Amino acid sequence: MAETSDFKAEPPEGIDALGASSEGASLYEQIREDIIEGRLAANERLVVTDLARRHGTSTNPVREALQLLRGEGFVTFIPNRGARVRPIDQDFVRDIYEIGVLIEPALTRWFVGMATEEDIAELERLQGLIEENNFADPLRHSELDTAFHTVMYQRHYNRHAAELWWKHREVLRAVSRRFNFTLARRAAIIREHRELIALVKSGEADKAAELIARHVEGSGRHVLEHMRARSAARAG
Amino acid sequence: MAETSDFKAEPPEGIDALGASSEGASLYEQIREDIIEGRLAANERLVVTDLARRHGTSTNPVREALQLLRGEGFVTFIPNRGARVRPIDQDFVRDIYEIGVLIEPALTRWFVGMATEEDIAELERLQGLIEENNFADPLRHSELDTAFHTVMYQRHYNRHAAELWWKHREVLRAVSRRFNFTLARRAAIIREHRELIALVKSGEADKAAELIARHVEGSGRHVLEHMRARSAARAG
DNA sequence: ACGCAACAAATCGTACATTGTTTGTCGAAG
DNA sequence: CTTCGACAAACAATGTACGATTTGTTGCGT
């Protein structure tokens, strides 16, 4: 059972996706999803009583979930005035991508030195599925792509960095789900993934790191273009 | 009043050092300090009732503070079994330093392009105080050193990265407070700071970035050596 | 020595009191 | 008639208290 089996996007291990408490778990996750998916608008007020009623619980679990979200940066607080949804705007996304450009190459470099036969086989399998899907099902592509990169970062000794990457990834996955891939971007993704696998095979860590930097940067640029376009359309 | 006046270490602005609520503020900060400073041992159980009694409040504020700390990664939770102090061990510190080595050069590079006369004057003023103090008062050195780097990262457009840096810095400040600086490290710090100021003046961004990478890495190595030594002593 | 049952302790959810903020109305001045 | 401001009522955040449920432990009987 060494096989990672499926392509479902899951945290790199050891990262607690758990909520505040037994019941709080789903609550935290639900509110969080609502924020990331945009069902809760940017800067929207998060009234504890409302959320409690809506989720069929009392206020205390909601309060704790909000504090947890605050610690993770999804919610902002003003004393005596409650919580608001932190807007996931262009600046926020740009910030995250820029950090990714700095961190992911380092994670990749390490992976190249540690990759096993199975890792490479798994990458090729996922890449096969990605090309097979060929962006027909965007959601599936998103999952596959995340899985692809998870294979690389999963076992990195720097758990803190891996966790950071995963948290960022979750946000970006939700954001990019709102947009389609341009043809140019599709081609670039396929090409870069193939190149990456080749570099992993030949053990060229520096080149792989450099490639990942370009890959992440390109991805960020792509998403930001879409966001800009959409916000421009909304404004015009 | 353009002058940043003092040398007190303060967050880069716009970063809420606020707690859960009016009273919760101090509570959050106190527990957090207790963890970082080591007054609460690694993996120690955090019993809500105890903490409430100790801080003279009821349980709810404590529960919220703990969730906030969880979101920030200082506390771990197991459902129905409560919270524990996340150990700030060598791995944790190493992880943080490694991320710093990746991020700080980028922040520095930007600063070199944006530095004003006042910025440079402030850096030189702080460096003067650092050399004047000459590690006689370690706490003061820590504050001055933090202020020095804050001047550089304070206004960076990537708030997320700046915030990340600050949070890491707070942890490292507390950890390194437990150790003395070796003579070699003292000399290196003074030298590198001077070099850095020179590079900022001449606008050599790449070299400054490279220098910061070395600076952070050296700092990390130094602290980790101390931690290793101490834990070895404890074990032996 | 092992299992099981009663007990102790702490988390988690609910309900409530208090305090601070927001909102809407009324009235007077311009 | 409109505008501004004081005041009051509704609203929501924060803190307190308590009961229910889960977990861990202790001691008894076999």
TrEMBL record, chains A, B:
HTH gntR-type domain: residues covered: 21-88
| Xref: Gene3D superfamilies | GntR ligand-binding domain-like (1.20.120.530), Winged helix-like DNA-binding domain superfamily/Winged helix DNA-binding domain (1.10.10.10)
Signal sequence region:
none
- SUPFAM superfamilies in the record, alphabetically? GntR ligand-binding domain-like, Winged helix' DNA-binding domain
The protein's UniProt keywords, in alphabetical order, are: DNA-binding, Transcription, Transcription regulation
Q: Output the InterPro entries linked to this UniProt entry.
A: GntR_C (IPR011711), TF_FadR/GntR_C (IPR008920), Tscrpt_reg_HTH_GntR (IPR000524), WH-like_DNA-bd_sf (IPR036388), WH_DNA-bd_sf (IPR036390)
Q: Which Pfam family is an annotated match for this chain, by its short name?
A: GntR
Against PANTHER family, the record matches this protein to: TRANSCRIPTIONAL REGULATOR, GNTR FAMILY (PTHR43537), UXU OPERON TRANSCRIPTIONAL REGULATOR (PTHR43537:SF5)
Q: What is the name of this protein?
A: GntR family transcriptional regulator
| Organism of this sequence | Mesorhizobium humile
